[in-house]
Amino acid sequence: MRIQLNPKLVVSIVYVTAMFMAAMDGTIVNVALPAISNEFQIPPTATSGINVGYLVSIAVFLPMAGWLGDRFGTKRIFLIALSLFTFASVLCGFADNLQTLNVFRVLQGAGGGLLTPVGMAMLFRIFSPEERLKVSRSLVFPIAIAPALGPIIGGVFVEQLSWRWVFYINLPLGIVALLFGFLFLIEHKEPEAGPIDLPGFLLSAPGFSMLMYALIQGSSQGWSSPVILGTGICGLIMVCILVLVELRVEKPMLDLRLLSDRLFRTMSIISLFAVAGLVGILFIFPLMYQNTINASALESGLIIFPEALGLMLASRLMPWSYKKLGGRQVISIGLLGTIVVFVLLSMVGPETNLWFLRSLFFNIGFFLGHAVVAVQFLTFNNITPASMGRATTLFNVQNRIASALGVVLLASLLGAFGTGTTGANGIEQPLLAAYQFTLLGSAAFLLVGLFFALGIRNADIAAVVPKQSPAQNSEMGAIVKVSE
Q1: Pairing of β 420-421 and β 428-429
Q2: Are domains 1-197 and 258-422+429-465 of this chain identical in fold?
Q3: pTM for this one?
């Protein structure tokens, strides 16, 4: 007997599980850094390499993900990436010194850099444009829940077990996804993939890695540091040359010509500023809440968690909202509502009611969730299946850069306001007013995104209508066929 599962269900389950692991890793590890510092007997600043190596590794491997999937098969590359991410996580848990932990984090980043674009390519190839709103709703789960759960689960592990469990948690999830994907995923290759874009790879790997390193470390090492200036300038020059080269290559690794499509270009720009704003506020607020109110990482995580609930509710309401208002209005109202909430969040202080804070984060998820799901739905509407791998790669590269820019620019803005002595240990920390003003920087990112959202042409999205027939609504259900 041979069990056949609906291919759309299989791709969705495998992708959501893998993305849950990768998204949670971004926040759960941060909670464990003080414990790692204590166990390895190193200064807290030395633990920055744990995240830097991971993020730089992602920057190196992310641009080639689309071509690898097209050339060697999306199933094969996705499962290789998932295996690498899972077992590198276990190796991180076994690490007995900082050096080996950094090496294993680089391996983990290599797997993480390939997972997202290859997985998105599988999803958007197998679902028609009319069905993608439903798919985007399912993507909200790992994007929303995992980062919010990270600080909470990480805090429990560090306090009750060991920091090593923030890595071990990926093993059971990874094994389940690997077995399910190995048994039921269908392979897909693009016959027109062509050979590797060697000039693009030789420019993108060092260019993006140096640029990301400079962006991540600039605020801590100082922007005038020779290392930061050198890596930043060299990385920027290589990326600029990469743009010129990729526009002339017949089969580029990063197909920048896809940006000639107005809808893809506009949605990508809106996504860039939305990601920068959200990542920025999720970076600044926990620092403010812990450093000025003396809350624990677990307490700040519990304050932020309602954002995930708001995002999930928004994903459920999106089909109704989209039909009633239209894509342009949903994105614009979502961004405007989030800007208002960001401004309110910049006014909070030690006396602010905790439930009011939680309600603000719930509304961030609700408003921004509408905008994010609508953008995700519309972005790839005009992209052909043959170009999907490169389109998802380009989209994820720019979002990864947006994440770094959100943190970097707000951290620099925070540092520009100077510090005040807080706490019994006399460590210099920014004053509450500096944090509050910096939170407005996140609103500024969204304001730019809103400007582009208001410029969306109704003619570009008039024909984009979610498919809602009963037959299609059942496609995401657990359809199992048993045949001889």
Answers
A1: antiparallel
A2: yes
A3: 0.74
Please give the Cα distance from 209 to 202 (Å, whole number).
11
Q: Say whether domain 1-197 belongs to CATH 1.20.1250.20.
A: yes
- Assess whether pLDDT exceeds 90 at residue 396: no
Nearest to 387 by CA among 264, 258, 248, 260: 258
Residue whose pair of structure tokens reads 């592990």 in the numeric block: 157
pLDDT of residue 279: 79
Q: Torsions phi, psi of 4, nearest 5?
A: -120, 125
Give the model's confidence band at 429: pLDDT under 50 very low, under 70 low, under 90 confident, else very high.
low
Beta-ladder partners of 428: 421
Structure tokens at 436: 């509050």
Domain topology for 258-422+429-465: Growth Hormone; Chain: A; (1.20.1250)
Contact 373, 317 (CB under 8 A): no
- 48 burial class (0-12, 13-18, 19+ CB within 10 angstroms)? middle
> What residue has token string 């600029």?
240
In whole angstroms, give the CA distance from residue 268 to residue 162: 40
Residues of the chain with pLDDT > 70, as a percent, come to: 83
Whose structure tokens read 């005038």?
Answer: 224
Instruction: Tell me the C-alpha distance between 479 and 184, whole Å.
Output: 13
Residue 170 to residue 25: CA distance in whole angstroms: 9
Tokens encoding 256: 């920048």
CA pair distance 214, 228, nearest whole angstrom: 5
Q: C-alpha 434: how far from its chain's center?
A: 27
Q: Which residues pair with 2 in a beta bridge?
A: 483
- Phi then psi dihedrals of residue 5, to 5 deg: -105, 155
Sign of the Cα pseudo-torsion (361, 297, 15, 390, in order): positive
| 3-class SS of residue 465 | coil
Where along the chain do its domains lie? Answer: 1-197, 258-422+429-465
Judge contact between 314 and 366, C-beta under 8 A. Answer: yes
Q: How far is CA 301 from the centre of its chain?
A: 18
